[in-house]
Design a protein that fits this description.
Elements: H1 3-13, E1 16-21, H2 23-26, H3 31-41, E2 45-50, H4 56-69, E3 74-78, E4 90-96, H5 102-119, E5 122-130, H6 138-142, H7 153-166, E6 170-174, H8 185-195, E7 200-204, H9 210-219, E8 223-226, H10 228-232, H11 236-248
Parallel strand pairs: 1-2, 1-8, 2-3, 3-4, 4-5, 5-6, 6-7, 7-8
Helix pairs in contact: 3-4, 3-11, 7-8, 9-11
The structure holds SN-glycerol-1-phosphate.
Amino acid sequence: MKVWDYIVETLEKHPLYFVLIDPDETGYDEAPKVAKEAQEGGADAILIGGTVGVQGEILDSVVKRVKEEVDVPVILFPGDISGISKYADAILYISLLNSRNPYYISGVQALSAPILLRYRLEVIPTAYLITEPGQETAAGWVGDARPLPRRKPSLAATYALAAKFIGFKMVYLEAGSGASYPVDNRIVAAVRRAIGDFPYVIVGGGIRTPEVAAEKVRYGADAIVTGTVVEEVQDIRETVASFARAVHSTKR
Ligand code: 1GP
């Protein structure tokens, strides 16, 4: 089954919860175990990636080992052209629409397209919008983003509407990994209002509790991503389970 079909079918049942594994943070040897426990806790997919570091043979080997441990989709979340592995199920084909640098809007996509074709990787066209406080995170800094201000949610909404008109299937609202606070609820709500039911909205960055994850869903998120919380706890399965329960049981 295509990952996209899995996403659409699962969304008919409940909102999605993705666990992001950045092997540079979790450790390359720990990543497969983290993925297994995340699946057992109820994660709907595993994202693998990071802004710096994860690439080449090491990435291939991590993705292969993660695939051996889980049945849920393993989706690449690349920081650059180097974040590609033919062993993954799909890739978020990301365009950072509010970057100042055209490389992150269309350059990296062009440079990676031939290799994605050769690997026959399923691509999921994703508009990536970095909001405040993304400027304090690696994604915002490296991606040279002009973070969308939380006091002007209409700006995020216009970018999201442009993403819809261009034809993206996902809009990823990102506060940045390890952000001191998550994407503002007013931004999530304004984006949802502007684009209607589609594209699907992913919200990530700075989400630390199941309550906050559920809140983002109530304001309009279709999918929640957490990364850092899983890196910080001992009991990964139970932590993921509490997030999965909160996300899956909340109505959009
Ligand atoms: C980063 O949205 C993800 O791209 C996850 O962020 O690590 O803060 O959970 P956190």
